[in-house]
Amino acid sequence: MNVQPGMVAKKLGMTQLFLQDGTRVPVTAMAVKGNVVLGHRTIERDGYTALQVGFDEQKPSRMSKPQLGQFKAAGVAPCRKVQEFRVPADLLEKYPIGSELPLDMFAEGSQVDVQGITKGKGFQGVMKRHGMRGKPGSHGVHEYFRHGGSIGCRLTPGRVLPGKRMGGQMGGDTKTLQNVKVARVLADEGVVLVRGPVPGAAGSYVTIRTAHKTAVREVHRAARGQK
């Protein structure tokens, strides 16, 4: 489980950067400015430690009274998106309730984990969903070009095995990209640029947090150094 601090971001879309040597780098722009701490989860009260973060202001008229009471207690404006991030107990004091998460949490060149919901594509066949090649377009083949072939197992076991690749609903799944490199941090605009694509459509919410595997490697490296 990733227990590194993170932020909620809004995917703005993709663009490109040019390095000093002229290399073109495709990047995804994500707006992260405005992440505020709404609450703390503690071991004594909740059984785990986490930061409750709000992002993207919402009209108070679209919130229920209990929700408005939560934001009023934290001293922040109502937020459209609320997300919890599991963190160690010592980080709760670093980010008090009502404070805004700093943008320097992500340094240029560091690695992060980005999680989002992929674009929904509806019901799709096996060629688009699983990359099957289909059937030949000649030698007597007709009305079978984009089929997946046989799915049966004859007498034994006499049923279709679970996990068989077939047509079905595609997209709309939660996906996590690990060890994505931060290409640039635009502090004035509150935007983070990461290399490559990010799951989700433009305008959707994603979570970005320090890479779990990188943090684990650093802990192991420090432990070996102490020995």
Q: Helix segment count?
A: 4
pLDDT averaged residue by residue: 92
End-to-end distance, in Å? 26 Å
- Provide the helix percentage: 10-25%
How many beta-strand segments? 11
In N-to-C order, the SSE pattern is EEEHEHEEEHEEEEH
Structural features, described:
This protein has 227 residues and is an alpha+beta fold. It has a domain of 46 residues. 15% of the residues lie in helices and 35% in strands. The protein starts with 5 loop residues before the first strand and ends with a helix. The model has no long low-confidence stretch (mean pLDDT 92).
Sum this structure up briefly.
The protein contains four helices and eleven strands. With 227 residues, the protein is an alpha+beta fold.
Which labels suit this protein?
alpha+beta; 6-stranded antiparallel β-barrel; 35% strand; 4 helices; 227 residues
